[in-house]
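Technical annex, item 7. During the second reporting period the consortium partners agreed on a shared format for inverse folding records so that results from different sites could be compared directly. Each record opens with the tokenized structure and is followed by the designed sequence. A conforming record, contributed by the partner at site C, is shown below for reference.
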């Protein structure tokens, strides 16, 4: 089928829909520029050390894009999966 793709300034794909689960380096770069650090309140772990978390879980039909992604340090990322808690975007 045809998969729509959203491209960044360098024509790098930033929205992959459901064609792949993990974010590409271009997506991670775009997310890191926007979010800068872990999105858990009170945590300031830099973007380079964070995981990308799908706000709408991929296994439940979520897309791999920059809009529905949040950066979380490994500790908080695991905590999110254990509790199901979500945090609003904090830039």
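Designed sequence (site C submission):
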């Amino acid at each position: 089928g045809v998969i729509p793709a959203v491209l960044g300034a360098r024509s790098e794909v930033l929205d992959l829909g459901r064609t792949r689960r993990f974010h590409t380096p271009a997506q991670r770069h775009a997310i890191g520029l926007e979010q800068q650090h872990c999105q858990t309140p009170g945590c300031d772990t830099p973007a380079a050390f964070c995981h990308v978390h799908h706000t709408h879980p991929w296994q439940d039909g979520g897309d791999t894009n920059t809009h529905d992604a949040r950066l979380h340090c490994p500790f908080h990322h695991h905590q999110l999966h254990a509790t199901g808690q979500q945090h609003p975007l904090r830039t």
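The chain has one domain: 6-83. The CA atoms of residues 35 and 91 lie 5 Å apart. All partners now use this format for quarterly exchanges.
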